[in-house]
Design brief:
This protein has a domain of about 190 residues: Alpha-Beta Complex (Spore Coat Polysaccharide Biosynthesis Protein SpsA, Chain A), CATH 3.90.550.10. About 35% of the residues lie in helices and about 20% in strands. It contains 8 helices and 13 strands. A 7-stranded mixed beta sheet has the order 3-2-1-4-9-6-10. The longest helix is centred in the C-terminal third of the chain and has 45 residues. The radius of gyration is 25 Å and the shape is elongated.
C-alpha cells in the first residue's frame, strides 16, 4: 500500500547561538518559518522539526519558536566534526516518519534567511541541492549549507553517508556531497532548489558562494595591519550567517584574533553588553512612559476635582 507523502521534516543541525545573541538566533529560526516552512502551505501538524545541536542552556527556549509544530531537541557533546555531526543529525529521523514525508531538509541552524527557498523541483524520489551553481565547476564543488532528500531515497541516503567517506576532498566539509550522490544515485536523481543566474558563466570558479561573505572578506587584519583583497565574490541572495549579523564590528574582530576560544568569549561578552544596554534603554523607556502616564492621571484628577473656592448659588 502506498503511503501519502504529505509530511515534511526539517533537521536543524550545528551549533546554535554561534557567535550571536539569543535574539538573533530566534530571528533566524523565525525566518526559517517565514521563508521555508510557510511557503509550503501545509498544516502545522505535517511539519516535523529536529534540532540537533551542542548542549546549551538556551536550546529549550529556542525550541519554543517552533511550538506550533512537532519539534524535538537532540543535544550532543561539542565536537567540531562537521561530517560526523551531519551524519548523526540525519539519523534522528525515524523510518516510520521519513517513509511518509515528501522530503527531509537538512540545514544549518545559523542561517538567517532573507528570501524564500524554492521547493518546486522537489519530489520524494530526488535529491535537491541548495542551488544550481557549483563553487568549482570542474570539480563539482557544491555549497554545503543545506540539502533536501526525497522520502523514498532517504533510507538509501542514510546508508550511503554512514559507510562512504564524504570529505575525500575539501576536508571536514560537505562540499563533496554532490560527487558522492552523483556516483551512487546518478544524475537523473539529482536536482536543485533555487535557480540563480551565473554572473560569470565562462569562469570555473563561481562568485556565488555558500558563505554569504564569499571566499574572502573585503579585508582582514594581519598583525594589526589591514590587508585588502581583490575579490568579486557576491556571497548569495538567500541568507546570511547569524554570526555576521553583528555588522562590521564582528568582521574586524574575527580577523584580529587567532585564539578562537578567546575570540568566542570576547564576542559573547560584547553581545552580552550590547543586549544589556538595549535592555536598559527599554527599561528607561518603560519608566519614562509609566511616569508620563502617572503625570497624566494626576492632571486629569486635578481637573475633575471641584474648586472649593467656588460659591454655590
Amino acid at each position: 500500500m502506498d503511503i501519502d507523502k504529505d509530511s515534511y521534516v526539517f533537521i536543524l543541525r550545528g551549533e546554535t547561538l554561534r557567535s550571536c545573541s539569543i535574539d538573533i538566533q530566534k530571528e533566524a529560526y523565525q525566518n526559517i518559518i517565514k521563508h521555508i516552512i510557510k511557503p509550503l502551505n501545509v498544516s502545522d501538524d505535517k511539519i516535523f522539526i529536529k534540532i540537533h545541536t551542542f548542549s546549551n542552556s538556551n536550546n529549550e527556549v529556542l525550541c519554543k519558536v517552533f511550538k506550533n509544530y512537532n519539534v524535538e531537541l537532540f543535544e550532543v557533546r561539542k565536537v567540531y566534526k562537521q561530517v560526523k555531526n551531519f551524519v548523526n543529525a540525519c539519523k534522528t529521523v525515524r523510518k516510520r516518519l521519513y517513509q511518509k514525508c515528501r522530503f527531509v531538509m537538512i540545514l544549518r541552524s545559523d542561517l538567517y534567511f532573507f528570501n524564500d527557498v524554492d521547493f518546486t523541483r522537489t519530489t520524494p524520489d530526488n535529491i535537491c541541492f541548495q542551488w544550481n551553481l557549483f563553487h568549482n565547476k570542474k570539480q563539482l564543488e557544491m555549497a554545503d549549507q543545506y540539502i533536501c532528500v526525497g522520502g523514498n531515497l532517504y533510507e538509501e541516503f542514510l546508508k550511503l553517508i554512514s559507510i562512504v567517506k564524504i570529505d575525500t576532498r575539501w576536508a571536514n566539509s560537505l562540499h563533496n556531497l554532490y560527487n558522492v550522490c552523483l556516483k551512487n544515485f546518478g544524475e537523473e536523481k539529482l536536482s536543485y532548489l533555487n535557480y540563480i543566474e551565473d554572473p560569470e558563466p565562462k569562469n570555473n570558479l563561481c562568485i556565488i558562494r555558500g558563505n554569504p561573505q564569499g571566499r574572502f572578506f573585503p579585508f582582514r587584519y594581519v598583525e594589526k595591519k589591514r590587508i585588502q583583497f581583490n575579490t568579486k565574490d557576491k556571497g548569495n541572495p538567500l541568507y546570511n550567517y547569524t554570526r555576521y549579523m553583528l555588522g562590521p564590528f564582528f568582521i574586524n574582530f574575527f580577523h584580529n584574533h587567532k585564539d578562537n576560544d578567546k575570540w568566542m568569549k570576547e564576542v559573547h561578552e560584547y553581545v552580552r553588553k550590547r543586549n544589556k544596554k538595549i535592555e536598559n534603554e527599554k527599561e528607561k523607556e518603560k519608566e519614562k512612559e509609566k511616569s508620563k502616564t502617572e503625570d497624566e492621571k494626576i492632571v486629569n484628577s486635578s481637573e475633575a476635582k471641584p474648586d472649593d473656592s467656588t460659591t454655590s448659588i
